[in-house]
User: What shape does this take?
Amino acid sequence: CLSTWLQLHLASHSDEPLAVPPFPLTVNKLHRVASLFKAGGYLSFDNYLSRAKAEHLATSQPGGSGLTWTYELGRADAEAARSVGRNAGRARQSRPVDPVRAWGLDLPEDPIVDGGPVGPRDFIVAGCLFLLREAEIAAAQIRHVTFGVGGSSATWLLPSSKTDCRAVGVTRSWDCTCGVPTLHSAYPVCSLALQSDRAKAVALRCGNDPDGAPLFPASDGQEITRAAAVATIEAVVVGYGEVTQDHLGCSLYGGHSLRTGGAFLLSGLGVNPYKIQALGRWRSSLVIQYAGEAMHSGTVAVSYTHLR
Assistant: This one.
């Protein structure tokens, strides 16, 4: 957020003969930067404004004391937020990936994009069925996944996430779903078992310790980037015949497409929305939106009890 603010500050003062420091903020600086956020169609301007405000308050004065948020700046930020948000609509949601259609593709075990994960098909299936963000699945390690006796279940430890900044960690589990016809072989436990063996082989080939190696490594055994994770998602979507950009050239898929894909699939299968919300660690009732969209799509609901 701060990086984007600084870039737009520089652009908004490009007509000045001398460089204008971004902080401390003034009413004029705030209005100039906000105008570019509005022109760019940003839908979460409040997040950027909040970060800039924090940076302003942390800026030291000559005497060593911090700055204050004046009445004039308070009025300016309220006006800016109202202007940028007017007629903007709701924030963009990453379009869901379909793990069943992804499983049906004849994908190789090797990465399908530069720097992408080994095992791209299992990357999609496991990410969707465990409702993971791209950053979480990219940071996952082999040791974070454990299996029940005979592969009867898979438990995934998520040591840190967007809603767990203290890295307390949570676990999410699936029982074996082999034979569930509505998943068409897109089975989370089997996908993780295959990927775990694949990742261990990559780690040994690259001379890495398998215990701390990535679960979805790049070909060189290193952790994939978030950009490579999203590129893999887009490549898979193209593979089963969908476009990845709208008529304005904006990306339809992103780092949350695995989460939305899993939520959409489970909603269509008749899983209780509260169970999906718990599995995905949502604090809001956003999952109800996916349930409504799944119902609208005409997906047949079935009884489903394999996730924990």
The mean pLDDT is 86. DSSP finds twelve helices and three strands in the chain. The beta strands are 145-147, 153-158, 170-175.
